[in-house]
User: Fold this.
Amino acid sequence: MVTIKYYLAIILLTISVSTFGQKFMVQGNDTLPYKDKLVVQTDTSYFGDKVYYPGDTLYEGTCQSFEKVNGKIINQTDNCCLRQGVWIITDSSGYYWTGIYHNGHEKGIWKWFDNKGKLLEETEKVNFAGDSYMVKEIDYSSGHPIIIVDRAFLKFYIDNIILIYVIIFGTFFSRPFINSRIYNIENGTNLSLLYFGLPFTKKYWKHASHSFLCLYTLWFFNYKPENRRLVIISNTFSAIALGTFFGLLIGLAINGELH
Assistant:
């Protein structure tokens, strides 16, 4: 009974989208029924393999538009003609895709149904740097889910890429400041990690060597008792930075994302 109600709801949704959806456009601060704009060509224009000559008529659409179905807004385009929000795209046979667009790119899970409301396929894409990556694709057309694409690690990586690099760079480049303190205590010196004196002098090379040592010391084994707390922090930061970095590379390699 639940299944019958589910299919009936899908069928009604499909009918309402294709038949009763009212499309609107936004002009200034006004919302108006959608209407193409008639344009008479004054010059010869080329659109793909079509040529329009002076005197020919074209119908131009508006970018900022949306459809309202059962009180809900779908199929929106912004003032740059980029698709936004929930979309339901129906073809001539009644099959339809439904999902979310963000700045013209498919986002999250999209589902493809036939004209009877049967789920045929489910996909998921993630966006990064203007590109879309398919991370999941499941085929339901046979009645049983068949996994075609499963890139869960890539999805995790892209979804958390900012946090991952904040952790890697934050921990790795915090270490030199801690290490500088450790080495100064160990050696009874007062060298600076960042030296702004005259370059290529004896003092300059002394500070430069100190900075190089602080940056590339990844682990402390022998140290004075008073440095124990700083050494624990430095070693922990090294473990986090290197562990995250190499764990990321290994995960991408295992999942076939490194080419």
Remarks:
- Residues 161-187 form the longest helix (27 residues).
- The chain is about 35% helix and 30% strand.
- Residues 1-19 have pLDDT under 50 and may be disordered.
- The chain has two domains: 2-32+60-151, 161-254.
